[in-house]
Specification:
By secondary structure, the chain is of the alpha+beta class. It has 7 helices and 4 strands. α2 packs across α4 and α3 packs antiparallel against α5. The longest helix is centred in the middle third of the chain and has 21 residues. The N and C termini lie far apart (about 55 Å). The mean pLDDT is about 90.
Length: about 210
């Protein structure tokens, strides 16, 4: 499977089985995910694997952050949770936002690799992701922030992940405005081109009749 095929096939699995990859199975995938573009090779990220009672600790932390009496059961939706941590480095060359982008790139690439390896994955976040109680439960340092968790498990038999709408490339891929224009002009989209062709054909037919 090519990288393009893997990317097109990837989708989020909100429900997974109790199966989960072992640490040894994770290692080569993380090594590959760590190859994302990284300005100055700072590696401003790290991962935390949550298994077994680790998930109960997270559930209690989420409840504390939300002011609830009962622990949250959300972390029990998968046997393995991988916390994505942005671990910022002190540097004048690479801004904080760029370092967070690197950590996000690692998370997405890892989810792609896990999916390709046959595992169901979904990246979950939420309003409590950066709550103090949650950060404390993960043992985060002052220079670190949590970006969410990859919930990982087996793909249920006989079920498929939800469908995603295809990307409208004409909407997301544009050009820089021409010099001297007000910035509103954009190159013609494929839809515009189709309309133009129809007008041209109609004009030719009308010319023949005339």
């Amino acid at each position: 499977m090519s990288a393009r095929e893997a990317a097109l096939a990837r989708t989020s699995w909100s429900k997974v089985t109790e199966a989960a990859p072992t640490r040894d199975e994770l290692v080569p995938l993380i090594e590959a995910a760590g190859r994302v573009a990284d300005h100055s090779s700072l590696r401003p990220w790290r991962l935390i694997e949550l298994r077994g009672d680790d998930r109960l600790t997270l559930g209690a932390a989420l409840a504390e952050a939300a002011g609830d009496d009962k622990p949250s059961t959300k972390p029990l939706r998968a046997s393995l949770l991988i916390a994505i941590v942005a671990s910022y480095r002190k540097t004048d060359k690479v801004p904080r936002w760029e370092q967070e982008a690197v950590a996000s790139g690692v998370a997405h690439t890892l989810s792609l690799l896990l999916d390709e390896a046959g595992w169901g994955v979904i990246w979950r976040t939420g309003g409590l992701t950066r709550a103090e109680a949650v950060a404390r439960a993960h043992g985060l340092h002052e220079n670190e922030e949590l970006l969410g968790w990859l919930y990982v498990g087996g793909k249920p038999e006989g079920k498929s992940a939800g469908r995603r709408k295809p990307v409208d490339v004409d909407t997301v891929l544009t050009r820089m405005p021409d010099a001297g224009h007000d910035g509103d002009e954009q190159p013609p989209t494929s839809t515009d081109k189709k309309k133009s062709k129809k007008k041209t054909k109609h004009h030719k037919k009308k010319s023949k009749k005339d």
